[in-house]
């Protein structure tokens, strides 16, 4: 099972077309076909099924994809670590959810980067569960997430605390006196899975089960752009919107019949990681 086969499988799972995959990877279509056939022989499973206009992952292919992504990440992490080690004495790989990066982590990272000239710093943005998996796989050294990490050999600390605010632009805000849960459920809501755990469950609980949101984005930093454009409502961490609230470009809407939980982030790293301790010491 070689890296070219893994990369080809991942690309085909995204593009769902042999021809486009071959073009994107600058190889012949027969090469893509042969690489996938080799993977299927090695795994003993059919990974793709042909559909009109392309292919789709089988159930076994979906399962293999999660492993393929991790294998690819591990390989790239190893290559980067070896190259970095040749130039820098030390390195620190930090994974962070976007909301915490934008509201709390940037000052800490910039100070650490400035104060440690012999350390290479790599920052990866992602979702909580993915980052914790990357931490376990040693792809990153430190994970900042909304999920506490309770695993032997790791240290997990509370990192930051914030408030969730329901926000809208003054032009779009129809609830200056406050909003009830039933009213929110009937609004056009900009859904962002920026939070997991208690906060994420809270946002989902405000809407009917299996509610179909007309708008969804997986990067909390992008939601503000839509709110500023006068498009509907969304919950965001207060620290992310401090400037817009101060300038009057956004307004916070008071909940009338429901309570909003605290937004707590955590920092996790392997015990004994001196660079992680040094990073947090600058807080």
TrEMBL record:
Record keyword Transcription present: yes
GO MF term set: DNA-binding transcription factor activity; transcription cis-regulatory region binding
InterPro entries (alphabetical): LysR_HTH_N, LysR_subst-bd, WH-like_DNA-bd_sf, WH_DNA-bd_sf
One Pfam family hit: LysR_substrate
Domain HTH lysR-type span(s) in chain numbering: 1-58
Entry keyword annotation includes Ligase: no
Name listed for the protein in its UniProt record: LysR family transcriptional regulator
């Amino acid at each position: 099972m070689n890296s070219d086969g893994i990369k080809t499988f991942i690309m085909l799972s995204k593009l769902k077309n042999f021809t486009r995959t071959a073009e994107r990877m600058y190889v012949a279509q027969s090469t893509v076909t042969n690489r996938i056939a080799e993977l299927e022989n090695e795994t003993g499973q059919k990974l793709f099924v042909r559909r009109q206009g392309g292919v789709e992952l089988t159930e076994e292919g979906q399962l293999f994809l999660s492993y393929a992504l991790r294998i690819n990440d591990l390989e790239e992490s190893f290559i980067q670590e070896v190259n970095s080690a040749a130039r820098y004495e030390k390195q620190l790989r930090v994974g962070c959810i976007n909301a915490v990066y934008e509201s709390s982590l940037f000052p800490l990272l910039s100070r650490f980067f400035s104060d440690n000239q012999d350390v290479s710093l790599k920052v990866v943005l992602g979702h909580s569960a993915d980052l914790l998996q990357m931490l376990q796989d040693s792809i990153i050294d430190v994970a900042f997430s909304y999920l506490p990490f309770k695993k032997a050999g790791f240290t997990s600390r509370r990192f930051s605390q914030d408030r969730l605010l329901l926000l809208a632009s003054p032009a779009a805000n129809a609830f200056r006196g406050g909003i009830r849960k039933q009213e929110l459920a009937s609004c056009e809501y900009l859904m962002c899975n920026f939070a997991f755990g208690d906060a994420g469950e809270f946002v989902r609980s405000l809407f009917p089960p299996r509610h179909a949101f007309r708008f969804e984005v997986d990067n909390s930093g992008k939601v503000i752009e839509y709110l500023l454009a006068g498009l509907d409502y969304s919950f965001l961490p207060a620290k992310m919107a401090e400037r817009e609230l101060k300038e009057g470009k956004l307004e916070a809407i008071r909940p009338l019949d429901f309570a909003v939980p605290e937004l707590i982030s955590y920092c996790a790293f392997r015990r004994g990681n001196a660079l992680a301790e040094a990073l947090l010491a600058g807080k």
